[in-house]
Structures are given as structure tokens and as C-alpha cells.
Task: inverse folding
């Protein structure tokens, strides 16, 4: 009987050793399970993976308010600075640091990676802190992809002077990259923004209101123009050449006969479409790992 027990015990020990050799022993380190047997390497270590950690920012930023309490970008030159108030505020207010917004950011990350046709990615979330770990294949585009994840993703069509929002992101149905062959000039690449029913109606209204002047030879800049704003910057400021009745707005990115230039325009368009087609970030994230040091991509 004792001999049988020894045999069974030996078999169990052999099985355990085999499992440890092939699988490894792990412990939880934050979001990541790490192997405690460094002499053994996992298959993912041979394929060139990079894990980057994104954390909810604790930074503050300066806000400037005029005497009426309205926020302004800066104090106008020559103005009385005493009439303006400066205040340091958190980029992420406490009320927004919650599980719902953490989950939303994770979803946005995944949507952006899908839109960029990234394969073999993994996005993990710590629901308590909002920290997100992203695992990607290591290649020459990895840094750029990680920068894209930090973008705010804001989009709007505004009055170029008053900055009143004429069409918001919630009125966009889908943005896509399209091509057309112009013949002598080459291939034109453009970003086509298709609006939902409400946005299409509004586009028709503002295209009539901000229509290009009939006198095309006039050197005077039109008083009323729209600014198409994406990621905190104006893509372009212009008038409409005609009234838009089909609910779509094509924006030319470039025209070329060179395949390399066409590819550059297409990649730029894909980046724009990725931001427009996914929600705007509800929180600001930062990361200082893997060569990414900026707070946001601009």
C-alpha cells in the first residue's frame, strides 16, 4: 500500500513539474500577470509584443475667464489683465472619474484599433483606477498607433469667427476615405463625411447660409465662413461652392500621380475617419512608457 502511494505521489510531482515547465508560474502585477520563472519564455515574447500602460491624468491646466465669467483662450493684447481671472483646474474632474467612463475609454481604444485594422491587440482595464494596458505587435508603426489612442477625437463644423458649433459630432453618421481618378492630375483622395438625418438637414441650411460669393474674382475675404475642426485644430476654413442636398461633405486631402503620396493622403484620411467614427474621449489619459511622452497627440 505504501509503495502504491509513493508511485502515485511521484506521478503527481512529475505532472506538476511538466505543467510548470510548459505554462509557468504567474502572479498579478497591477493589470498584468507576470511569469515568475524568468528562465522560461512564453511564445508571445518571441513575436515582439509591447505592453503600454495608459493612466488617467492627474494634471491641471490654466483656465482664463473674463470679467463676465466667460472662458477665453488668452488675454487680448493691450487688455487690462486685472479684469481677467486665471485658475488652475484638473483636466479630469472627479465627477468624471468613474467606471462608466473607464469602460467608454476602453471601448474607444478598441474601436480605434479596429478602424486602423490592427491585428493581435489586447486591451485590459482596471475598473478601480481606470488604468488601461494595451498590448500590440512591435513594429515601425507602434509608436504612431499609441499616439493615436491619446487623441481627444473632437469634431465640429463651426462659424470661423464666433466659433458657434453649426454641426456637432453627434450628427455624423460615418466618415470614409474615397478616391477618384481625375485623369491628367492623377488620383484625388478625399474624406467623405456622411451625416445622419438631422445633420444632413443642418448641412443643407448652413451650405446655403455660407455659400461662396457669386463674384469669384473678388479679392475680399467673405465675412461668413465655416471652420471644419478636428482634434483641436482647423482642417480648413472655407465657404460652400454649392448647396449640399445629399447629406455628404467631401473634403479633398490631396491629388497626385505618385503612389507614395497617394498612400500618405489615404493614411491621413484613415486617421481622420478613425477619430470621427469613434466617440470623443471623456477623460484625458497619459503615458510615459515605450517612447510616448506627450499628453495628447496634436
Result:
Amino acid at each position: 500500500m505504501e509503495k502504491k502511494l509513493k508511485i502515485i505521489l511521484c506521478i503527481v510531482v512529475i505532472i506538476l513539474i511538466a505543467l510548470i515547465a510548459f505554462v509557468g508560474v504567474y502572479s498579478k502585477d497591477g493589470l498584468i500577470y507576470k511569469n515568475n520563472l524568468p528562465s522560461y519564455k512564453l511564445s508571445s515574447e518571441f513575436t515582439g509584443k509591447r505592453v503600454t500602460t495608459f493612466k488617467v491624468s492627474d494634471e491641471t491646466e490654466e483656465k482664463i475667464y473674463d470679467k463676465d465669467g466667460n472662458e477665453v483662450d488668452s488675454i487680448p493684447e493691450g487688455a487690462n489683465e486685472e479684469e481677467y481671472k486665471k485658475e488652475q483646474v484638473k483636466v479630469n474632474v472627479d465627477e468624471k472619474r468613474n467606471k462608466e467612463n473607464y469602460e467608454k475609454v476602453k471601448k474607444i481604444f478598441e474601436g480605434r484599433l479596429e478602424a486602423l485594422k490592427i491585428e493581435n491587440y489586447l486591451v485590459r482595464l482596471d475598473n478601480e483606477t481606470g488604468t488601461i494596458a494595451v498590448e500590440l505587435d512591435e513594429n515601425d508603426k507602434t509608436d504612431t498607433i499609441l499616439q493615436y489612442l491619446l487623441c481627444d477625437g473632437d469634431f465640429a463644423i463651426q462659424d470661423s469667427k464666433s466659433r458657434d458649433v453649426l454641426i456637432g459630432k453627434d450628427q455624423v453618421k460615418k466618415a470614409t476615405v474615397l478616391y477618384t481618378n481625375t485623369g491628367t492630375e492623377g488620383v484625388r483622395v478625399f474624406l467623405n463625411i456622411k451625416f445622419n438625418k438631422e445633420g444632413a438637414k443642418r448641412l443643407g441650411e448652413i451650405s446655403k447660409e455660407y455659400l461662396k460669393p457669386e463674384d469669384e474674382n473678388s479679392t475680399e475675404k467673405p465675412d461668413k465662413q465655416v471652420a471644419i475642426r478636428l482634434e483641436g485644430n482647423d482642417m480648413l476654413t472655407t465657404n460652400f461652392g454649392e448647396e449640399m442636398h445629399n447629406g455628404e461633405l467631401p473634403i479633398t486631402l490631396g491629388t497626385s500621380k505618385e503612389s507614395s503620396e497617394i498612400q500618405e493622403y489615404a493614411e491621413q484620411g484613415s486617421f481622420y475617419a478613425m477619430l470621427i467614427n469613434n466617440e470623443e474621449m471623456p477623460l484625458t489619459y497619459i503615458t510615459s512608457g515605450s517612447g510616448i511622452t506627450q499628453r495628447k497627440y496634436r
In short: The longest helix spans residues 2-23. The radius of gyration is 27 Å.
